[in-house]
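Lecture notes, continued. The same structure-token format from the folding unit now serves as the input rather than the output. Read the line below as a description of shape only.
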């Protein structure tokens, strides 16, 4: 297919696209630029010559040499190579600081580390642009692969192949059991990964947290239940008839943070707070949930719940004082094993 020659109304848009392209590539040939933008090589040459006489006037309102773009004319005329040697205006645009760029690069590294990430090349290109475009050299950062990453990869394979999996699971009450499930779907919430599955031991759909799973094995047996055969609610956690209810005095700002657990709310004497009824799978799940909302939540009843918070805080304080590892587990969720 022959390259097209842009019309007059396309020329400005083309010039605005060509300059960032040349800056990003640092070095390009006329042929490469023409192929990238699907225009003729002669049109690229004309545009480059126009760029070389473009700029921003200084305080005198008259163009001086440093107010114009410049290119390596020898490379351009002799070898059809485009190299911008002097920039104007663009250098004054806001840039990420070195720390900001490092933080974004770390996040992109984590994203690219997710198994079967389809856009790793694109993510790599974005990281390279952040490195070049920062106001300073970003700090060297690296995201270590977690234990759950390998588990996630195995489960993805099982879901794709519609194969059952077996694993050892530690539930929220620190009980260890061997489970055999039909994996149906993988979800994530905050920094945690979960698998929705039909549990053959429980005879129903259960949600398992990946960092509580170990010794995961794909079984050479086809799943007996598929996502279309069972009901998978839109929310990750669901209430159950076996849930326990806890009444708390809660800051309105904290309501969105634990909305999954709230069954109902009523007005409070303090306009900035509400009285909320929480539904939890187990009373033992309450400790980390409340402690994770310092100053925003106070347990009112039942008495068992207040005692649970007191015991949880005492255990945590004791471990902190002994400089030992922090307590295992997390705030427990509805329907999460």
């Amino acid at each position: 297919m022959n390259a097209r020659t842009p019309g007059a109304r396309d020329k400005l848009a083309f010039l605005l696209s060509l300059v960032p392209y040349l800056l990003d590539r640092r070095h390009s040939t006329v042929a490469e630029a023409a192929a990238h933008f699907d225009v003729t090589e002669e049109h690229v040459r004309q545009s480059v010559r126009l760029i070389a006489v473009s700029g921003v006037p200084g305080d005198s309102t008259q163009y001086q040499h440093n107010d114009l773009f410049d290119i390596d004319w020898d490379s351009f005329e002799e070898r059809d190579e485009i190299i911008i040697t002097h920039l104007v205006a663009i250098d004054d645009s806001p840039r990420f600081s070195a720390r900001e760029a490092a933080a974004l690069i770390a996040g992109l590294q984590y994203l690219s580390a997710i198994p079967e990430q389809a856009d790793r090349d694109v993510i790599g290109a974005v990281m390279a642009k952040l490195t070049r475009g920062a106001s300073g050299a970003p700090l060297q950062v690296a995201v270590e692969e977690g234990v759950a990453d390998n588990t996630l990869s195995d489960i993805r394979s099982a879901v794709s192949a519609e194969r059952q999996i077996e694993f050892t699971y530690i539930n929220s009450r620190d009980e260890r059991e061997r489970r055999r499930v039909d994996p149906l779907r993988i979800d994530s919430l905050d920094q945690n990964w979960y698998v929705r599955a039909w549990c053959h031991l429980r005879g129903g759909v259960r949600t398992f947290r990946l960092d509580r799973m170990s010794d995961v094995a794909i079984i050479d047996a086809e799943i007996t239940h598929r996502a279309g055969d069972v009901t998978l609610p839109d929310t990750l956690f669901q209430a159950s008839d076996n849930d326990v209810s806890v009444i708390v005095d809660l800051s309105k700002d904290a309501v969105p943070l634990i909305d999954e657990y709230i069954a109902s709310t009523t007005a409070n004497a303090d306009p900035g707070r509400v009285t909320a009824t929480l539904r939890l799978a187990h009373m033992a799940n309450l400790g980390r949930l409340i402690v994770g909302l310092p100053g925003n939540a106070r347990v009112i009843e039942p008495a068992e719940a207040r005692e649970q918070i007191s015991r949880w805080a005492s255990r945590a304080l004791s471990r902190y004082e002994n400089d030992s590892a922090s307590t295992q587990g997390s705030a427990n969720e509805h329907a999460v094993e």
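Point for the exam: The chain has four domains: 8-92, 98-133, 147-222, 244-321.
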